[in-house]
What does this fold into?
Amino acid sequence: MAAPQSNPTVERDRHALNGWLALVLVVLWFIVAVAVFLSIGSIDADDNPGAVGLRVVGAVLMVAIGIFSSFGFFTLEPNEARVLILFGAYKGTVRMSGFHWANPLFARHRGVVPGSTPVATKSPHGGTRLTQLKLETKLSLRAHNFNSETLKVNDKRGNPVEIAAVVVWRVDDTAQAVFDVEDYESYVQVQSESAIRSIASVYAYDHGEEHEVTLRGGGDEVSHELAKELGVRLGKAGVVVDEARLTHLAYAPEIAPAMLRRQQAEAVIAARKAIVLGAVSMVEMALNELERKDVVKLDEERKAAMVSNLLVVLCGTEEAAPVINTGTLYT
It folds into this structure.
């Protein structure tokens, strides 16, 4: 039986009331409440006691409503958003920066931080009380950097390597970030490390087959695949990845000396190969030039001797000591 799949939450854009306009309305409301309260003195309490009581109750209610409305003001900086939650129901997201007013009943917090420990705070009446860190309904839409710890994983060939990466990410869908995962920041951290491990196991550290992409030589292609892998994983949390790059790559300490010796041996072999190819080309050029300019006639045996001597001189690791022949060519 297949596990049920939950539908992702879709962000709904919502515009809040201009805060300055709401502030003017609230101030006017308080002025009217004060005017109603002052108008009580113009009523004869003996002739119309019910009107006096009604005015008093009305003035008190107006002041209470004005105070309650004052809790609806909030501000948003550029690249900030606020998720509007009314009694657990998602009502929309405000993205426009500035001074705003919304229903004071909209929640200011969206739960406690998962796994957080209660913090002791001083009570106004003395003593201490335990409070937990709460998640705000305000979300930052700015770009964030996540620097992963150095992870020890096995590459494609099973060699243990140390790898770390930096991930540049930002929240794109606030509804998914708030409602589809428990804590999107913790989700980004865990999934990023998981994606780094997955990518490291797909590629070899180096010395791959012909035209094979490796972690050390892949560069942009490895970064592209890492960003693609992260995009799939973090898309469930409404997060997009702007960039992902490896910041640390090395063999694990237990095999690093052996791999260093292998690299040194391969470097020596490559250097020797280049020297031999160059020496053969120089010997061939020397023989051709001698023959073309008719400097000397050499039989096959003398050519072989000359080739041997030139290769020893050109391929030797130490400087050769020449021997001067004072006799003829054949003695």
Remarks:
- The radius of gyration is 40 Å.
- The longest strand covers residues 239-251.
- Residues 17-136 form one domain.
